[in-house]
Design a protein that fits this description.
By secondary structure, the chain is α/β, with parallel strands linked by helices. It has 2 domains: about 180 residues, Leucine Aminopeptidase, subunit E, domain 1 (3-Layer(aba) Sandwich); about 300 residues, Zn peptidases (Aminopeptidase). About 35% of the residues lie in helices and about 20% in strands. Strands 8, 9, 10, 11, 12, 15, 16, 17 and 19 form a 9-stranded mixed sheet that branches. Strands 1, 2, 3, 4, 5, 6 and 7 form a 7-stranded mixed sheet that branches. Helix 4 packs parallel to helix 5, helix 8 packs antiparallel against helix 10 and helix 9 packs across helix 15. The structure holds ligand BES, manganese (II) ion (MN) and zinc ion. The site of manganese (II) ion has 5 residues, from loops.
């Protein structure tokens, strides 16, 4: 789908479909009122007749509205004007796209982007309209023998801009919206691929593709390199698998030479059986999504590269399968991490922290300004925050605030969780420096506490995306989160936010 921006009255634009909003109860938006005046009250009569109350989520498609240049007019219910916020705006756009994709219209002009959203500017509205529209047309049919159904006819989407003075900022919004959408789409594709296709080697290949396309430096560490570096924790997770582990290092360096990089570290378990501490069979298929942290790092770096963001970013992806087997790590085994600290592996299913800890130690060599790791780390985080917010842990308050604010702006929210020393006691081991699990209470906190022991040398934050990286049930599939949050974080760091 092709996107553009335009500043003109809906009466003048000749388009296959004009999309305008109606607030509840029965109040036409500015663009809808302009069409209504041209059509001599045609729309207000429909609204007065009770066919469009303006309830959020409702739509009404009209043909041949008199004196209007467009073939169709799509009315979209917005809910009460006083309650119209970020979420209502995004949902109205998604509802419009659902209808547009089921009509024959090849082109449409979206005037919903001209609606006022409290505390948000024109640039924000365009960014989100673009990202939401792309999300609405996302399909994953790579693994089907033939595509299902007919593809949507919609080819071109014109986004309305309120006044000429806003056109430049709208263009910046469009660029960011497309970059985020492309990053999200890459992350979703990688997440949705099955474990027999998306292996550590496949992730490395995909990272190489990204590196080639945007001329980035890439290094892939192999098992022998990890052995030399003493990455005993990462290697212990890979021990039961026939697939060799990798540590992918991808560098987007478009910032000033002297600027220290942000390091993004993504958990890349391409399938998590639990290892010898085997998981129960039900829903185990969803553990193909255990590499969504890794996918979000690739998606975010792609977005940053596409926008040519003047920042330095290093993506670090430790990737492995977690399998049982004759060579697999056993409960009670003790491993030596790259940091020198020893860990008693009391549960082989707590493997994410084991691959991440060595990647965090490896990150030290980049002298990072900040390190953010992203991981589908704990079922406990799903219990704590459900599928709405990602869990945020940090050893630095300013970094935490920065990430929370980026999440708000990107509508990809995180919620801060504690990382107090009291919780560290749960990791006590009688045999090694500490254990890899801390028992049932506060499971997502003790997992973060484990990682904190490898992050003392830099400002560090951890995003537990176990509840947000994919949707379950009928809509099962990767969400692409938190690519929007991370991209906004980098945009803000690049000083491009305003
Ligand atoms: N990848 C899982 C976490 C997970 C589970 C994410 C379910 C989303 C849904 C992780 O490797 C894991 O197995 N964690 C264990 C840790 C426990 C053994 C301390 C968990 O959460 O049960
Ligand atoms: Mn696990
Ligand atoms: Zn896992």
């Amino acid at each position: 789908m092709e996107f553009s921006t335009k500043c003109a009255s809906p009466v003048q634009i000749k388009s296959a479909c004009a999309v305008v909003g109606v607030f509840e109860p029965r109040k036409l938006s500015t663009a809808a009122a302009a069409l209504d005046r041209a059509a001599k009250g045609y729309l207000s009569a429909i609204v007065r007749g009770g066919d469009m109350e303006g309830k959020a989520g409702t739509t009404l498609l009209l043909h041949h509205v008199p004196n209007v240049a467009c073939d169709r007019v799509l009315l979209v219910g917005l809910g009460p004007e006083r309650e119209f916020r970020d979420r209502n705006y995004r949902e109205a756009i998604a509802a419009a796209l659902r209808v547009l994709n089921s009509t024959g219209a090849t082109e449409a002009t979206l005037h919903l982007t001209e609606l006022a959203v409290p505390r948000r500017d024109g640039r924000w509205r365009i960014t989100h309209a673009t990202a939401v529209a792309r999300e609405a047309v996302y399909r994953f049919d790579k693994m089907k023998s033939k595509p299902e159904g007919t593809p949507p006819a919609l080819r071109r989407l014109v986004l309305g801009v309120r006044d000429r003075g806003e056109l430049r900022r709208a263009a910046a919004g469009l660029e960011q919206g497309l970059a985020v959408a492309h990053g999200v789409s890459l992350a979703r594709d990688l997440g949705n691929l099955p474990g027999n296709v998306c292996t550590p080697a496949y992730l490395a290949e995909q990272a190489r593709e990204v590196a080639k396309r945007y001329r980035m430096k890439i290094t892939v560490l192999e098992r022998e390199d990890m052995e030399k570096l003493g990455m005993g924790a990462l290697l212990s997770v890979a021990a039961g698998s026939a697939q060799p582990p990798k540590l992918i290092v991808l560098e987007h360096r478009s910032g000033p030479r002297s600027q220290k990089p942000v390091a993004l570290v993504g958990k890349g378990i391409t399938f998590d059986t639990g290892g010898i501490s085997l998981k129960p069979a039900s829903e185990m298929d969803e553990m193909k999504f255990d590499m969504c942290g890794a996918a979000s790092v690739l998606g975010t770096i792609k977005a940053a590269a596409e926008m040519k963001l003047p920042v330095n970013v290093v993506g670090l992806i430790p990737t492995s399968e977690n399998m049982p087997g004759g060579r697999a790590t056993k409960p009670g085994d003790i491993v030596t991490t790259m940091s020198g600290q020893t860990v008693e592996v009391l549960n082989t299913d707590a493997e994410g922290r084991l691959i991440l800890c060595d990647a965090l130690t490896y990150a030290e060599r980049f002298e990072p300004a900040a390190v953010v790791d992203i991981a589908t780390l704990t079922g406990a985080c799903v219990i704590a925050l459900g599928h709405v917010a990602s869990g945020l842990f940090a050893n630095d308050d300013a970094l935490a605030r920065e990430l929370l604010a980026a999440g708000e702006l990107a509508c990809d929210r995180a919620w801060r969780m504690p990382l107090w020393d009291e919780y560290q006691e749960q990791l006590k081991s009688n045999f090694a420096d500490f254990a890899n699990i801390g028992g049932r209470p506060a499971g997502s906190v003790t997992a973060a506490c484990f990682l904190a022991r490898f992050s003392r040398k830099f400002k560090w934050a951890h995003l537990d995306i176990a509840g947000t990286a994919w949707k379950r049930g009928k809509e099962k599939g990767a969400s692409g989160r938190p690519v929007p949050l991370l991209t906004q974080f980098l945009v803000n760091r690049a000083g491009r936010g305003k």
